[in-house]
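Sequence only, no structure available. Ideas?
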Amino acid sequence: MNRHIRCTGILTALALVGAPTALTAAETVRLAYIDPLSGGFANVGNNGLAHLRFLADRLNEAEALPDGMTYEVVPFDNKVNASESLIALQRAIDQGIRIVVQGNGSSVAHALVDAISKHNRRNPGEEVIHLNYASIDPALTNESCSFWHFGFDAHVDIKVAAIAEHLANRPDVTDVYLINQDYSFGRAVAAAAEAFLPEARPDINIVGSDFHPLIKVKDFSPYVAKIQTAGTDAVVTGNWGNDMSLLIKAGREGGLEAEWFTFYVGLLGGVSAIGEAGVGKVKQISEWHANVPNAEMDEIVTSFKAQYPDFDWYYYRLGTMMDMLTQAINDTGSTDPEDIAFALEGMRVDTPIGEAWMRPEDHQLFQTLFLATLSNDVTHDVENSGIGFVTDERIELDDTILPTTCEMQRPS
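Reply:
I predicted one. C-alpha cells follow.
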C-alpha cells in the first residue's frame, strides 16, 4: 500500500495502475458539507463550499477515483449552530451520506464528534467519518479525540506556539492584548497565548484579555478603546468571519497602531475591511498564502478566481484533505468510513509546498506553516484590494509538532 504520494497542483489525477476493484463502478462518493450558508457567517461557509466544489470538479475531470467514480458535494446549512448541525447530520445520514466535511465553529465540531461517535456505536456497518478542515480547538485532537474525526488545520496550540517563537525574537513587543470570541475556540486561543507567550519571553506582559459574544457585536470601538488605553504593542486574536472584519475595521477607524497577530484575517472581508492601514502591521499564521512562490498553486489561484470571482483561494488545506481522502479510497478499494479512517492514519503526502502528515495517535494533520504580513507589493492580492501577504517566516512540519493527550478508542 503506497501512502506517500506526490500531489501536484490541487488535485492531480492519481494514475493508479491496477487500482483495487472492490468499489462499485461509477459509484458517486457524496460529501455532506455542513457549514454556515446563511446568517452572519454565510460568506465564510459559502467560500468553503466553493473551494470544495472546485476541488471535487477537478478530481472528477482528472478521473482521480477508480472505476469511473465521482465526487458529489451536498451542502447543508448549519448557521454555525450546534443544534442545526445535528439536524443537518441526521438529514445527511438519512440520505445515505457517510462522509461529513465541516470546518467553521469548534462548538459545532464538538457536537458533531459526539453525535457521530454515538451513531457509529449504535449502527455498526453504517458508520460516518468527520473530516474537519477548520475547527481548531485543541481538545478535538486531545482529550475529546475520536477515531472518526480528522483535523486538517493546525490546532490553536500549534499556531500560538509559532507566534510565540516569532515574538521570542521581537524585543520591541512587550505588551500584548488578547481579544477572542466567547466560545471553546476563542477561550482556547486565550489560554494558549497565556501559556506560550510568557514561556517564550518572560518579559512579555498580557495587558488585557477580552471575550465577546459570537457574531453579536456590531461595533468593536469600545474594545479597541480598551486596547489603546492598555498601551498595547500587539493584539492576538482568533476572530474569524464578520467578527474579524468588524474588529480590524474598528481598529483602523480608531487609529490603533499595534501589530495584529491573527489566524483568519485573510478570510473573506478581513483585508478589505482594514485596507492600507494594515500594511506592515497585520499578520496571519496559516498553512499557506497566495504569494508563496509556486507555479502549481499560481494556476489554482487564477483558475479558482476565474470560476468563483467573489472569492479568493484560501483553504489550501482543503486540497490536502481531498488528496488524502482520494488516496485512501484508492489504497483500500473502499468508500467505507472505517476503511478510509484506517488508511488516513499515518498517511504522508507531498503537497506543492511540503509534506503533510496525519499523526495516527490523534488524527491531527501536521504541515508547513507561514507567518505572513500584509503588503501592497504583491503578485496576488486579496479581494482585489491591491493588498496581499508576504512571508515573514516559514515553519517546517517538524517544528510544528506538539504532544497529544489523546487516548483514542479504535474499532476492534
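The chain has two domains: 4-154+293-362, 159-286+368-396.
Hope that gets you unstuck.
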